[in-house]
Specification:
Number of domains: 1
Distance between the termini: 37 Å
Strand order of the largest sheet: 1-2
Number of strands: 4
Radius of gyration: 14 Å
Order of helices and strands: EEEEHH
Bound molecules: iron/sulfur cluster
Length: 77
Amino acid sequence: MLMPEDRIPAHLTTTSPEGLLVMARGEDGWCTALDPLRMNCTIYDQRPDTCRRFVMDGTYCRAARKDYQQPQAALLP
Ligand code: SF4
């Protein structure tokens, strides 16, 4: 979710069904600001406040990684 003070290029944002301004997602489900080859943020210096507060390897980060990995694990024989 974006805050009024965030300065994100409009083509990278969208409005959620709840009416909130958020980062848009590509067809792959990733944030449109993500470089999928390098897996890094292409607007790092101007990334949203929410992203700045995200604690790498924190509780939420680990939970998100676990959620992301589960569908892939299900594909393994
Ligand atoms: S850090 Fe960058 S790529 Fe990651 S969610 Fe935020 S804006 Fe998107």
